[in-house]
Amino acid sequence: MTDNRDQVDAQIHRWVRPDIVKLTAYPVPDSTGMLKLDAMENPFGWPDDLKSQWQAKLAEARLNRYPHPDSPEVKTGLRNTMKIDSRWEIMLGNGSDELIQLIAMAVAGPDRTVLAPEPSFVMYRMIAQFLGMDYVGVPLTAGFELDLELTLSRIEREQPAVVFLAQPNNPTGNLWGDEKLRRIIEAAPGLVVMDEAYTAFTKADYLDWLEDYPNLLIMRTLSKVGLAGLRLGILIGDPAWIEQINKLRLPYNINNLTQLSARFALDNFAVFEQQSTELIRQRGLLHTALTALPGLTVFPSEANFLLVRTEPGRAADIHSALKEAGILIKKLDGVHPLLTDCLRITVSFDEENQRLLTALAPLLKLA
Ligand SMILES: *Cc1c(COP(=O)(O)O)cnc(C)c1O
Hints:
Elements: H1 2-15, H2 18-22, E1 35-36, H3 48-58, H4 72-82, E2 89-93, H5 96-107, E3 113-118, H6 122-130, E4 134-139, H7 148-158, E5 162-166, H8 178-187, E6 191-195, E7 216-221, H9 223-227, E8 233-237, H10 239-246, H11 256-267, H12 269-292, E9 296-298, E10 305-310, H13 315-324, E11 327-328, E12 330-331, E13 342-346, H14 350-365
Parallel strand pairs: 1-11, 3-4, 3-5, 5-6, 6-7
Antiparallel strand pairs: 2-8, 7-8, 9-10, 10-13, 12-13
Helix pairs in contact: 4-11, 5-6, 7-8
Bound molecules: pyridoxal-5'-phosphate.
């Protein structure tokens, strides 16, 4: 047994890339039985009548057959729901995570760079690392605004193959403003991907900018609006760009059940829109309630989460005390220097937000 172990270790070190051996896998905590406020999921289910209609649809699925390789019905549903002009091509991924990976694969190579403001969505950095690319994170200001001069100078110096801009940004929740975004897209020598994962919760919408900028792609997902379990990411842009990236997509990446469910959900999208409207309202209420607690700074948010800062050194205790109480939020303290003492809380419906507030209030008095 021991010999075996040594042999496996030796082989791993001989064959697996040293930079991969050094990595640690993206941690997803066990959330069994917990109130889950850590991953920006929609907390609402579907009304019963919709659920039974959906189940009837699923009964049509033929799992003995491969799925349609291009998911035409899903794309039609997306075009209608998101008002995507016929000039733009759509490509689907197993979540937008897969799309980030495929975009990066299309441009990867020695001395190729991925650039993104930081802190932002961690997969930009991780996927660049997986592919052996250089990654440049340009720090935001202390108030989480985009540092335009610094970003422009890094773009000039690094000549990134792709720039990722999440709007609203995760985990800061804010928008950086059209003027700065335009300057960055104009300065970028390569692709710019505007990641609109939180489009359901903001009026900001950069789909129209595809007309202005041939190097721009828009990325969305159904995850945050209410279908995280489905895994459907959406890339929109000039057909010539999409054609290249699509070559790297595995032929059946969107399975039959996802295609059927997505089409059904898109035909009934009003339900998600109502739920999003309610979550926007709850975001305002939760923001007010958290601000009223002692020792918390609450940042403005255009997404379905709130970023908060605790008093110095308290974030880890508060995070674990909430976990003890059965409530899971995201600890960001330690993830990036700008996020020291920060926690991220997904907005839920009233009862769950109240449960969080009730558990949180006594912890803040302890300081
Ligand atoms: C959650 C998130 C994603 C990933 O979404 P999936 O479609 O679930 O893979 C992408 N970008 C940002 C900014 C996110 O917050």
